[in-house]
């Protein structure tokens, strides 16, 4: 088989169906860009989960004097049958936490095998941290140290087992609430996963559109060159020899689309993450992926960009290239 003949036939086919070829390139490019972006998103979410779950603590907030007063008022309203009683704090009805209760809680926490470490935060320390984070707000000026709650920050060996700590301490005397930071993090990751699923769904739709365009392009190209292929068949050319130019046309269009997708992924990393928008500098709480992760996805994009159109063309030719 002469390479010059194959290349000339590819050029002829691409020029004859220029508009459809352009549509194939755009469809393949967008679908593969979404494919690469979905892979990066999944890797980013997994990386963030590992980072934030490791830092997520179970916080056990202890009752202070103000909590005890509010609990007593709520209990009184409940006894009177007031509908407002359901909104009151009733977990601190027996008063503020005592030193003995604090020692008992800390002792039980340290005995639990799933607990990695326990850190105590006093009301003064909680007030200091609150002022560091929210000192510029109007509410911060009205908060006093005695209104802040003492707490135990519990770090678990396995964050997935936070419910064990919650069930063991919630509702006990001296404990106001048991808060697991992982629950708030899960909400964020749930949203990110939904976005990733949406991107995958759009990618599948774009891939289907691209495949239909490839099949239609091959069909039109085969029909427009039916006389040439008929002559080649009469002179003894094999089916593979006749099909190669059509398959290569689809492969070239797919490769151009894949390169377009790679360009979008690289541009997104450069202009959105590192420079331009600069999310890496603006959102320092997120450890964004580097160039290594992006470059590692490009071979997959290029491979699919070549394989998918070639297979679609090969299957289409079995039906439309019968002479």
From TrEMBL:
Task: Report the principal subcellular site.
Answer: membrane
Q: Ranges for the ABC3 transporter permease C-terminal domain?
A: 201-322
Annotated localization: Cell membrane
Stretches that traverse the bilayer? 21-41, 197-218, 254-273, 294-317
What InterPro entries does this protein map onto? ABC3_permease_C, FtsX, FtsX_actino, FtsX_ECD
Bilayer topology annotation: Multi-pass membrane protein
Q: Does the keyword Transferase apply?
A: no
Q: Which residues form the FtsX extracellular domain?
A: 58-178
GO biological process, alphabetically ordered: cell division
Keywords from UniProt, A to Z, are:
Cell cycle, Cell division, Cell membrane, Membrane, Transmembrane, Transmembrane helix
Pfam families hit by this protein: FtsX, FtsX_ECD
Please tell me whether the keyword Transmembrane helix is annotated for this protein: yes
Question: For this UniProt entry, which residues form the secretion signal?
Answer: none
Please give the function described in this protein's UniProt entry: Part of the ABC transporter FtsEX involved in cellular division.
Describe the subunit structure: Forms a membrane-associated complex with FtsE.
Question: In which family does this protein belong, per the annotation?
Answer: Belongs to the ABC-4 integral membrane protein family. FtsX subfamily.
Indicate what this protein is called per its UniProt record. Cell division protein FtsX
